[in-house]
UniProtKB/TrEMBL annotation:
Keywords: DNA-binding, Transcription, Transcription regulation. PROSITE patterns: HTH_ARAC_FAMILY_2 (PS01124). Pfam families: HTH_18. This is AraC family transcriptional regulator. Residues 159-255 form the HTH araC/xylS-type domain. GO terms for molecular function: DNA-binding transcription factor activity; sequence-specific DNA binding. Gene3D superfamilies: Homeodomain-like. It comes from Vreelandella sulfidaeris. InterPro entries: AraC_XylS_family_regulators, Homeodomain-like_sf, HTH-like, HTH_AraC.
Length: 255
């Protein structure tokens, strides 16, 4: 069940004025939106975000060429979330805030992920809120512009990553997608992942593909070409070569 409503929008060149009974987070990856809340007006851009508490009157007008993530947060659901209290504190007052490069990169990655997998909007929303909470609550002046680089390794939930990988083995998998699942920039994710596992993310993905393939080779009647397709190899030849390198036996012999 989705608690949140998350959309990637282009805000049009028309003035809108309203209130609503949910909190709202607005982040842009490009373009400009003029927004005012209770007499305080600023521009929402890739470098400037906005938090709108529920029931606060606000007005906005886009430039027609923006790409904007709009996250609606039902107030009633926050109490049931693990970090609901921290999220609620984000909306203790209307505010505009500076968007550091790491948060902007994450916003880009999550916007792309949302467009590719709209069904994951709830998970993507939670990652976005977690990152924003760390930045606004935990950042010190010396660390401004960085998204909580302390304790990053603790944010690599391998069980969660494994579950996601197992559902997407047939697809192209990019480091940016995995980083977004952990609310990290690709560079930080790569270095932390290697420190935690001893291998690069893509090497880990390859290992996961091959281990899943071995189960299919040994315990199913599927053709080797079909197995190769199911675990993300473009053809049986490349699959067989990778299988032999990893297991020191060909898939046909292993079967």
């Amino acid at each position: 069940m989705a608690f949140f409503e998350l959309h990637s929008r282009n805000l049009a060149q028309e003035q809108v004025a309203h209130t609503h009974d949910f909190h709202q987070l607005i982040l842009a990856t490009c373009g400009v939106t003029e927004l005012s809340m209770e007499g305080q007006g600023e521009r929402v851009t890739a470098r400037r975000g906005c938090l709108i508490p529920s029931s606060r009157h606000h007005e906005y007008q886009g430039d027609g060429s923006n790409r904007t993530l709009v996250l609606d947060i039902p107030v009633a659901h926050l109490a049931s979330l693990e970090k609901g209290g921290e999220i609620e504190r984000l909306f203790d007052k209307p505010r505009f805030f500076s968007v550091p490069p790491a948060l902007n990169q994450l916003t880009h990655a999550l916007a792309n992920q949302l467009e590719q997998c709209p069904a994951l909007q709830n998970e993507i929303a939670i990652l976005l809120l977690r990152a924003l909470t760390m930045y606004l609550h935990d950042a010190t002046p010396a660390a401004a512009g960085q998204l909580g680089q302390h304790c990053i390794s603790e944010r690599l939930d391998l069980a969660r990553l494994d579950a996601w990988l197992d559902q997407h083995l047939a697809d192209e998998i990019r480091v940016e997608q995995l980083a977004a699942l952990c609310a990290l920039s690709p560079g930080h994710f790569h270095s932390c992942f290697r420190e935690l596992t001893g291998v690069t993310p893509l090497a880990y993905v390859q290992r996961r593909r091959l281990e899943h393939a071995r189960t299919l080779v040994r315990h199913s009647a599927l053709s080797l070409g079909h197995v190769a397709m199911l675990v993300g190899f473009r053809d049986q030849g490349s699959f067989s070569r990778a299988y032999r390198r990893y297991f020191e036996i060909s898939p046909s012999s292993d079967r």
